[in-house]
Design brief:
By secondary structure, this protein is an all-alpha fold. The chain has 9 helices and no strands.
Length: 169
Amino acid sequence: MREAVREREFREFTEARQAQLRRSAYLLCGDWHQAQDLTQTALMKLYAAWGRVCRDGNVEAYARTILTRAFIDQYRKGRWREEPVEDLPEPPSAEPVAPELRLLMQSALMELPPRYRAVLVLRFWEDWSVEQTAAALRVTPGTVKSQSARGLARLRRLMEELSPETSGR
């Protein structure tokens, strides 16, 4: 009986959050196929720890932590190589952003080192606190702050370099 309840709860969570996790994975790796693989890896690991995670609470934060750590581990092992992509992530449900700006931002984001990218996605896309991000990445809050500042500065420079308005000067 307990196992059936566990299966149902996990299935409900997966159906509700899989698309959102995949979009986050895409922002980390820049490829929809790799994002799907990364999401599946995270969900498999989440399933293995489902009973404990449900007892501890905040399943979504745990899932995103697994996703981010899996990305960093895969990148560190050299299994993924960045390549330009044609597909863009689905736009957030907030106010629409010009497609050109989205393309420019995606291109600039893919130029960042994986750690900066992970910090920026967790802090600003997922809206995590410094402490949550530090725990997920197993670094100190000071490291998150410095990598956020450096990552944003580099992202701004890249946006300026890639922007058609500034490159024509």
